[in-house]
Write a structure and sequence with these properties.
The complex is a heterodimer of chains A (about 375) and B (about 450). Chain A is mainly α. Chain A has a single domain, classed as ABC transporter involved in vitamin B12 uptake, BtuC, CATH 1.10.3470. Chain A is built from 14 helices and two strands, in the order H-H-H-H-H-H-E-H-H-H-H-H-E-H-H-H. Chain A is globular and about 65 Å long. The two termini of chain A are about 15 Å apart. Chain B has about 450 residues and is α/β, with parallel strands linked by helices. In chain B, about 35% of the residues lie in helices and about 15% in strands. Chain B has 13 helices and 18 strands. A seven-stranded mixed sheet of chain B has the order 9-8-10-11-12-17-18, sandwiched between helices. In chain B, strand 2, helix 2 and strand 3 form a beta-alpha-beta unit. The longest helix of chain B is centred in the first third of the chain and has 18 residues. The radius of gyration of chain B is 24 Å and the shape is elongated. Classes of the chains: A mainly alpha (about 375), B alpha/beta (about 450). Chains A and B meet through helix 2, helix 6, helix 8, helix 9 and helix 12 of A and helix 1, helix 7 and helix 8 of B.
Chain lengths: ~375, ~450
């Protein structure tokens, strides 16, 4: 984007056209949707789709809440991508599988607890135990992954650990397949206060819980990164690992801690996934992993607040986009295009703001 | 307000993302296709393959015709099985991944049928290494290529899923082989019963499973007449099976005079069904038919009651979700399921003389569990039909067994009034051989799954 001259090339023109077209399409879809809400019989409401449906307030709220809950999970996973990128400068694609391992651990332990009868009698205690166990298992997985797969590659070109991470991803997926089989693992039934819609704003309890836990995890992470010695060291390593080591920081230790914290966040996200969707299979980590990576990029990779914001953006966009933009535009089967919507958000954000929503532009001499 | 962050060097570095995305794209492609390689060197039977298909014209015609009354005109070639070798057939089912529950019983029933049937003219029958169709078109295609490359193979029992069948059928039938599916039900694979071939019909394709036009009509009749609901919605997952069945339901329901207020799709792998369900809720349907699989079905059943406008909607599914794991969920209680009629009673397979109870007992003894899906009987019948066809189209000459590929098809085309485990089978002009009986079950207790599987509340026709 930083041109030394004011001259615009054909590519610049092409990108501008692309930006304008995509934004115009979104605007047209939203306007048609708004026209429908105001009066379903006005001509603008049906210019593209004569069978367009409109949403009731309650349905709209349901979509926003489910999008936020899904987005909070993307955000929590995205933190792991973002932290590792910040410290090591490569993208750990196996992180989605760490999340899946967390959800699996939760499914197994919660079922054992349900068999023993504790799940129903003391749910909150059980849930805390399940979360703790999942966090521990995910942390260990992430730390072992770093030790075995990534540390030997320290200092190698970044493409090499990246390819390795894809291998680790398949390895973890197949390990779970072999150990636990290919059937869907279900979580036991949740207590009524989580599954019923609350009188409070008519939101399902489990979604409130997901949002609350995600917020809590974010606060904890913010405290860790900004207020503790470890966090200071992490930021120093991210700034310049070599100088940090000269200052007496044990870089390897900090990297391990970074993986551990990322893994713990994925463990929390895994349990939230279990509470929300109540079932998990060995391929569960793949798509959320890719979307979380997109969230990290949308928010500005390396920026933790941005990762969460990116997750929420993608979650809400894929929840609302099909019915608010594609449906009014007359696209058939809009719900099947939700993944396309999620990745379109990524593309549009990169077109309009290549550094991500909260990413910072760098002067060109800082780019290497 | 200050953002917390690791570093000032946050913005993507030029070039970094170029390769990151290239790798991301490659990763997705790899993931999409990785299943294909699973079979590896799957066709194991490395028995001397020197005996290739030979053209009938090359047959030296001795004075007395050794063919006897073996069927066939040789137009698709003749396979010679040398003395001491086995007749080759294959099983191509979904035996790994989330749909393995459907494919494994199919494959095992083929094994049992071969054992019960015994030798053909003194030659044993070999199923070879089981192939995996993975319930996907890529999996079906890869496995079919492996099979079609082996010229000794006469016929295939498979696939488990219509999606795999659409991809596998052309490859297998063009190689002169036949494919008999025990559980493909998409109308596209055979015909619309009005004399029009389906979009994916291939000569040489047969099935012992029902055509989903019948199942769609059964569910539509049940909802409209028995439940008294005249406004329904349907949801599919883009797969030919689910799409075909949902469309069949819609067409039948509208023919009956009902309204289908919503018809939409989700993707395999989706977890958050609220957007799709909200789309359907806009029409306030009284019933929602979602003939999909696990795990997506779990999410629909759990999330539908939470969507405004679907709170009181009756949920209905098809045999894809009629599995123990799904029935054990409390969310599935109160649902209706359509599926093939599995009340086999005393039906006896005329080729082996075995009845359903005997086969079930043998199955449980051999594999240590009861079949996990409904189509084991269809698979057993499919295998015996194929073996009968081989027997009818083969003759022994100089100690070798010769099998006329065209004769195999000729026999299958003429199957009529065949007594099988699943009822009376007759093949029509487009390969539909099933007895076409559908039942609707009502699921009332997630603690007692077996009782629900036998709780027939409606049968069709």
């Amino acid at each position: 984007m930083h041109k030394t001259t004011k001259q615009r090339t054909n590519v610049d023109w092409f990108l501008t056209v692309l930006r304008v077209t995509s934004l115009a399409m979104i605007a047209a879809g939203l306007l048609a949707f708004a026209a429908q809400i105001i009066d379903s019989n006005n001509p603008f409401a049906r210019w593209a789709n004569p069978d367009a449906i409109s949403l009731t307030g309650e349905q709209f709220q349901g979509l926003v809440v489910t999008g936020l809950a899904q987005g909070a999970m993307y955000g929590l996973i995205a933190l792991g991508y973002s932290m590792v990128y910040g410290v090591l400068g490569f993208i750990n694609f196996a992180h989605g599988e760490v999340f899946m391992v967390g959800a699996m651990t939760g499914a197994i332990t919660s079922n054992k607890l349900a068999e023993a009868g504790y799940w129903e009698s003391s749910f909150v205690l059980c849930l805390m135990l399940v979360v703790a166990l999942s966090v521990v298992v995910c942390t260990i997985t992430a730390v072992i992954m770093e030790r075995v797969a990534y540390r030997p590659l320290r200092g190698k070109p970044r493409l090499i650990p990246l390819i390795t991470s894809i291998g680790v991803s398949f390895f973890l997926q197949n390990c779970v397949l072999v150990l636990l089989g290919s059937t869907v693992k279900s979580y036991p039934d949740l207590p009524n206060w989580l599954t019923d819609k609350r009188t409070f704003l008519e939101i399902q309890g489990s979604k409130v819980l997901v949002l609350a836990v995600a917020a809590l995890a974010m606060v904890g992470l913010w405290y860790l990164v900004e207020k503790t010695k470890t966090g200071q060291a992490m930021r120093a390593v991210a700034e310049d690992a070599e100088i940090a080591s000269l200052m007496g920081i044990d870089v390897n230790r900090i990297i391990v801690k970074t993986f551990a914290v990322g893994g713990a966040m994925a463990g929390v996200a895994g349990i939230l996934w279990g509470l929300l969707f109540r079932s998990v299979i060995h391929t569960t980590g793949f798509l959320p992993g890719i979307k979380a990576f997109s969230s990290a990029v949308v928010g500005g990779i390396g920026n933790l607040g941005g990762s969460m914001a990116g997750g929420l953006t993608i979650g809400v966009a894929e929840s609302l986009g099909p019915l608010m933009i594609l449906e009014p535009l007359g696209v058939s089967g809009p719900s099947q295009l939700r993944d396309a919507v999620a990745f379109a958000v990524l593309i549009i954000v990169l077109l309009v703001r290549p550094s991500g929503i909260f990413g910072e532009r760098l002067p060109s001499e800082e780019r290497t | 307000m200050r953002r917390f962050r690791f570093s000032r060097r946050l913005a993507p570095r030029k070039g970094t993302f170029a390769w990151a995305f290239a790798v991301l794209a490659a990763f997705s492609l790899l993931a999409a296709s990785c299943g294909n390689d699973d079979d590896g060197p799957a066709v194991v039977d490395q028995a001397p393959l020197a005996t290739a298909t030979e053209a009938p014209a090359a047959d030296p015609a001795p004075a007395a015709d050794p063919r006897g009354d073996a069927l066939g005109d040789g137009s698709l070639g003749v396979v010679t099985v040398p003395t001491g070798e086995s007749i080759q057939i294959r099983s191509l089912n979904a035996i790994s991944g989330p749909v393995a529950f459907l494919g494994l019983p199919n494959q095992r029933a083929v094994e049992l049928a071969i054992a019960d049937y015994g030798d053909i003219s003194g030659f044993s029958v070999d199923m070879g290494t089981p192939l995996d169709g993975l319930c996907s078109s890529e999996g079906g295609q890869a496995a079919a290529q492996t099979i079609a490359a082996d010229e000794q193979v006469i016929g295939v029992i498979g696939t488990s899923c219509s999606g795999a069948g659409v991809a596998a059928a052309p490859l297998i039938t063009q190689a002169g082989m036949v494919i008999i599916s025990p559980s493909n039900t998409s109308p596209a694979l055979t015909s619309d019963f009005q004399g029009n071939p389906g979009a994916s019909y291939n000569v040489g394709y047969y099935r012992t499973a029902h055509n989903d036009l019948v199942q769609g009509a059964a569910m539509a009749n049940f909802v409209f007449s028995e439940l008294g609901i005249d406004n329904a919605a349907a949801l599919h997952d883009g797969d030919p099976y689910t799409q075909g069945l949902a469309s069949a339901f819609r067409n039948s329901f509208e023919e009956l005079g009902g309204t289908v207020s919503g018809f939409t799709g989700i993707n395999k792998g989706d977890t958050d069904m609220v957007p799709a369900l909200t789309e359907l809720a806009a029409g306030s349907p009284g019933a929602l038919f979602f003939p999909i699989f696990q795990p997506e079905g779990d999410f629909v059943a759990a999330q539908a009651p939470t969507v405004s406008g679907l709170e009181g909607t009756s949920l209905l599914a098809a045999d894809g979700l009629l599995v123990d794991d799904f029935l054990a969920l409390t969310d599935s209680v109160g649902m209706h399921f359509s599926g093939p009629d599995t009340r086999f009673g005393t039906n006896t397979n005329q080729s082996t003389g075995q009845n359903a109870d005997q086969i079930l007992a043998a199955y449980t003894q051999a594999y240590g569990e009861a079949p996990s899906a409904a189509f084991w009987g269809h698979s057993y019948d499919a295998a015996t039909l194929l073996l009968d066809a081989i027997a009818a189209a083969s003759w022994v000459e100089d100690g070798d067994l010769h099998i006329d590929r065209a004769g195999v098809r000729q026999h299958l085309n003429s199957v009529s009034g065949y007594s099988g485990i699943t009822g009376t089978l007759s093949c029509d002009d487009f390969g539909d051989c099933a007895s076409q009986k559908i039942t609707v079950l009502y699921h009332q207790d997630s603690e007692d799954v077996e009782a629900s599987k036998e709780n027939v509340v409606y049968s069709y026709p």
